[in-house]
Amino acid sequence: MAVFSRGFGGRRREADPALPPGQYLTKDFPVLSAGPTPRIPTDEWTFRIVTEKATTTTWTWDEFLALPIEDIDTDIHCVTRWSKLGTSWRGVSIDTLMAEVDTDAQFAMAHCYGGYTTNVPMADLLGGKAWVAFEFDGAPLAPEHGGPARLLVPHLYFWKSAKWVNALVMQDRDRPGFWEQNGYHLHGDPWTEERYW
């Protein structure tokens, strides 16, 4: 069962050129989830990358926090038409996580606690474009927003920034994840309104 909150008011894009087409500005941080909110203690949390050859690299929470951490200031855009500008995050770059991983895969599937999945091309995860984020606005990421850690791919619609992320599994081709199987676009660029198939 999907849970949606429309608890925000907005203004049209014409008032702010920082908004992609069809988006409205919100000061809130609406919560949208495809099911119940998992609550994962950090001492039980792990993140893994699985290559196309089934080689697995795994980090515990403490190992993850020992990696180089970056501050990220970015805008986020939800497919349900809200945008939030100037958000502040902290996290570990996917580039850092992939540095010791041997893969030729061009695509990945993000897997999450709770069973959610979303597909993302590696070109959208590398080159300083994506992180596994664990703080928002100076505080630990709340469970309803994907804590303890979520994928952050801010240049794509926000459903690609998978909450409660626990794995990236490399793929030989672009296979659809949860929302993509249910009619959402395979890629999700907000500036070209890649909302649905």
UniProtKB/TrEMBL annotation:
This is Sulfite oxidase-like oxidoreductase. InterPro entries: OxRdtase_Mopterin-bd_dom, OxRdtase_Mopterin-bd_sf. Residues 1-22 are annotated as: Disordered. Residues 35-179 form the Oxidoreductase molybdopterin-binding domain. It comes from the Bacteria. It comes from Microbacterium saccharophilum. SUPFAM superfamilies: Oxidoreductase molybdopterin-binding domain.
